């Protein structure tokens, strides 16, 4: 038996913040993972769910994957993220996560990273990349439902691409949506419109993002509010859209079709279960579009939908980019594994 020492890198939350990942670095890393997926240079398995107790207000997601194009020999990874929608009552984020990175040839652990920010950043990046390919290039009005951690990066990275004239935001709790808008105004340097209902947020918007935190499915976003030619991106844990939403779509895209039937959650869970959304009317996976294998938007009058459930590949690609930057800057702790 070998007595060789093995060390890994630990990046805690202050370390991740100290990296100060730029918008461009985040998007580039996530695009690399998507491109690898589209070209068949990655392995992804459907997410798994752990519900500790049915009466607890939340669950865990476990995401697993491998990206061959990262570094010299690729990187494998597993992320575990809690999704506990009432954590605000305890002063905690609703989503707290850990990402483990591994050498795919030996199984040696490479890093343990606080992935709470990674979850937020990569989700925003996937939203933005999806809109870049599926929304009109001249989109100027964003309607955003939800104010959780991922929502900030949705708006920030979308605005970096489209430079919106109007950004509308709404969430259930006034204190949450007001604080969300204030942070966006400070960081983006533009006026944010806070709305008091879903309809005024969604109606007439060029891009609609639904990132709500519902306790159970409820059709709060009405299909009739969707503007012809809009891009709709719903990804709430519990569905907030009507079954008729898919009826008006010209193109429907997912991050990974294998995730469509993974677990009981998801914005289009009922659409898949009822046969309204199936592999036959799936236009493409986003990675295929990023890799140039399938077209994105082809006409201004297309009404397009992008459903993303969250890819381990995006977590791994962004986590790997963070690990590389941390090693260049000397950030993080070196821990002995054995």
UniProtKB/TrEMBL annotation:
Classification lineage: Bacteria, Pseudomonadati, Pseudomonadota, Betaproteobacteria, Burkholderiales
Gene Ontology CC annotation, any one: cytoplasm
InterPro entries named among the record's database cross-references: NAD(P)-bd_dom_sf, ODC_Mu_crystall, ODC_N
PANTHER family recorded: KETIMINE REDUCTASE MU-CRYSTALLIN
Name under which the protein is recorded: Ornithine cyclodeaminase
Origin superkingdom: Bacteria
Name of a matching Pfam family: OCD_Mu_crystall
